[in-house]
Amino acid sequence: MKKEFIILILFLVKMSSCCAQLQPMFVEGFAQGTTYHITYIDKEERFFKKEIDSILKDFDFSVSTYNPNSIITKVNTNKDVVLDNYFLTCFNQGKKVWKDTHGTFDPTVFPLVNAWGFGPGKKQKIESRKIDSILKFVGFNLINLKNNKVVKSDSRVALDFNAFAQGYSVDVIASFLNSKGITSYIVEIGGEVYAQGTSEEGKKWVIGIETPIENKAASNPIIQNIQLDGLAIATSGNYRKYIEEDGTKYAHHIDPRTGYPTKNSLLSVSIVSKKGIISDAYATGVLVMGLEKAIKFLKKHKELEAFLIYADTEGKYQFYETPRFKLLKI
């Protein structure tokens, strides 16, 4: 699944010489086309990799557009399918964020994502007529749920939850750890993070937000560190995943309103909230808005904390942060 950004996790793994101090448990692996890293404190020293991998496999079977047998793929191809809680949660949360952002976040952007070559489908030759024809069946108003079944106004409408599914998967794993009585942990999947409690040293978990340098492979230098406890962070940017065509770079964030890749001064949007699915979805919607509209939006939505990195007229980094975001900085 997608990720155009990486939030570098700074796991606090320095071991103490005190024999009474609990040692952290580490679980890592691959899921959703990316990696995951989980650290937790458990007095019983239980190792949950098997359970976590099973959960993430079930999650992928629900909402991955890259899985030909997934629930979302069957919905997109108009096959009969029983919707599960993962799909329903994504659909309902997606509908809410779509309304809040006035369409800058829209999971029905999938046909455009494919056309531009950012999805599992074959890239198409981009022409204005082609974009206009696709836009006719892009819009979250064209698809609804009725008695937990999908109802489309146009059979060509197709969903893509990749813009916030990884954030939701972080929530799912956090919920699993909570169910096991784990109260101190940090979960990172594809760069999306939720942290709760403290490390083995009794300190809050620390993560770093990357400098938005064009880079498809490696990690970038950290531009800001923050502490999290009972909070999730997700970052969307236009520097990690892009294509080049005829000498022009196109970021993979598609503006659902125009059908074209987003092009504005925002380079990176980090959103902090109580849930990964919320942070992830709004990070995408805010990035597509552009700087001025994003600032106005964030002033109205005080449940979201944000750190925006943008380029000024000289190409230099500038920053905007919400008031309470400052309290997270170290």
From TrEMBL:
Q: Which GO terms describe its molecular function?
A: metal ion binding; transferase activity
Q: Which cofactor does it need?
A: Mg(2+); Mn(2+)
Signal peptide feature range: 1-20
For the ligand (Mg(2+)), the binding residues are 163, 280, 284
Q: Which controlled-vocabulary keywords does the entry list? A: FAD, Flavoprotein, Lipoprotein, Magnesium, Metal-binding, Signal, Transferase
Q: Which EC number(s) does UniProt give?
A: 2.7.1.180
Q: What domain of life does the UniProt record list for this protein's source?
A: Bacteria
Q: Give the matching Gene3D superfamilies.
A: ApbE-like domains
Spell out the reaction equation it catalyses.
L-threonyl-[protein] + FAD = FMN-L-threonyl-[protein] + AMP + H(+)
| Bound cofactor: record note | Magnesium. Can also use manganese.
Q: Which family does it belong to?
A: Belongs to the ApbE family.
Protein name as catalogued: FAD:protein FMN transferase
The organism encoding this protein is Flavobacterium aciduliphilum
